[in-house]
Structures are given as C-alpha cells and as structure tokens.
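Input for the complex:
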Amino acid sequence: MHDAPEQIDAGAYPVLAWFVHTLLPAPAVGALADLLDDAERDRSARMPEPRRTRFVVAHAALRQIVGYHTDTDPRALRWRHGANGKPHLVGLANAPAVNLTHSGHLAVVAVGPLDAGQPPRAVGVDVEVLGAARSAARMAERYYRPDEARYVNATNDPDELDYRFVRLWTRKEACVKAAGARLFQGLRLPVAGRCPTTGLVVSNPRAALPGPFVVHDIDAPAGACAAVALEGADPFQVTTRWWRPTANQEWREAAAAMAGVSR
Amino acid sequence: MNADIQQVTEAECADLVCGLIQRILGNDADVAPEARLEADLQLESLDLMRLADELRQRYGPRVDLCAHVASVEFDDLLNLTVGDVIAYLVRQVGA
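Predicted:
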C-alpha cells in the first residue's frame, strides 16, 4: 500500500520524508547493491545480518531518491562528511538538504526544500521502532529533562511509556541530526508537548545545542515513531511518501508519480 | 552483590559487552572485539544509549559510557570498536 500522491504547497517550505521498508528478498537486495559505491559495498560486507540488508537497501534508496530530486544518476552521487560526520552532497548546485535514518526494518530519507529557489536549511530525521527502549523509564530519569522524565513515567502502561520515551527521543535526535551535532548534545532540548501543525519550535539557549529548530512528528507505520527537524524557527511542511524498489531506469518515472510534486 | 565494589576480569568484561551488543543487535552473530560500533555494526544512538544504560545499571556511575563517548574526538569515534568499549569497562571496573 502506498500513499496516493497529494498536492504539495511549494510556498510552504516543503520537505519530503520517504519511508523505506528495508526487509527485501535477496535478489532485490543484490540488484540494489549495484547502486552503491565501493566504500559502501566494502562497509556493508563487514556488517552482520539483518543490518547489512538494511544498510544496502537504505543507501540504495537514498541514492535513488536523491538522484530523482537532483536529476542525477544515483551511482554518481558523492558525499562529504561534516565535523561530526553528517554527510553533505557535493558537486551539485542548489541541491536540497538530505538526511537518512534507520531502525528495525525501516529507513527514512528526508529531502528539502523541494523548491530550489528557497533558502537552504539543514534537515535531520529520526525513526525508531518501539520496543527498542525496554529500560525507557530508567533512561528517561537518567538522561531526559526532569519535566520530560515525569511525563514519560506518568503512566503505568508499558507500551505507552515506551511510546512517550521514543516519541521524545525521535524529536531530540532529529534536531541533533539537523545540527550535525554530537550524540547526547540534544538530550536537554525541551521537546515535550503537542506538536502543532506548523511544527514545534525547540530551543534551549543554555544547552549545548541551543537551537532553534522546528520539529514535526511524521506518520510512521504502527510500532514506530519518526520526526523531521529543520534548523531555524520558520515553519515548514513535511509530507510522507513510500519508496518502493524499482529498477533504476524506471525509477525516475516511478518517483515522479509517487512524489506528487514536480521538480 | 554490591556493584560499587564489584571488580571483574577482562574476560568477564568482554563477555558482558559482546553479549549486550548481541542482544541489542537482535541476532546470534558473534560480535568481534575489532568490530566498529557504527561503521561495522550499525549501532545507532539509541542502541548506544541502551548499552550505556545497561553498563551503568550494573556498575553504577563510575561506568559512564555516554560521557566517555562524548569525550572521544570525532575521527576516533568513527573507529570506536567493541574492544574499545571493553577496554573502557576494564579501566573502570577491572580487577
């Protein structure tokens, strides 16, 4: 089942979040591995399953998605790594910001802005499969802000507690990834509360990572949480789509139909 | 057993760290000390947090893997291995 394309408002700083199911049959994974560069293939060869499959599918999907949005051969894409390892596209004028995340058998590629005429803003995305934080109550107490720890632990339902912990985690991690910051720098960002349709503005001038950011929860499949964050306090619009494995020569047409937006 | 005065051997540290990572990865594959946490095993932020939390739960605040990771230079962080975590644990709680 895939999203029906819907019109995207190009004036609202549109960002697309592409969900990817990474659990694919071996022949499909083998075909997608052809899209990777030598370093990615070498790296994947050292990984245990099922993380190797997830890496191959997620990075091949990333290449197809970015290739579509930049009108570039997916195999030709190159990245350089920032101070804390955040990858940035190189050699493409007016390329959108891109970020990748994965958890369990899911990956998400966030791309924005879709309109090259809009100013660039760093993007971060995070997805987490629920149940990944069996010690959520303790970790919230230990690492979250006190008000957020109280919120996480103010329920006796273990599934709800897990959801609350992971929901806040994805918001924090999306901000950290937007900033290209270090692990744990964003744990003190205040991210609790209802996420309005315009996004939640997040900042903490006294924290290691002051912000501001705008963060949106996005509709993840059952059993997962996901969030997208942009640097700066201006609102943006995020729309979700599902990537599906497609032969590369057919990908542009398939992506155009799925994206529901013209470049 | 009082975790604050518990001392463990290097082999016990290795077994514990490898076992915890194996559990976090969710498979039965052997976890080699030379495997890099991020590049080879694809450990993510939340995975690392769970590992840090499990170690701290066992040994108390003297084992603060989060603080240790935060102090590592980025280039070294990319190459942080299972063996590095074992070595850190041995330094903190080793016999």
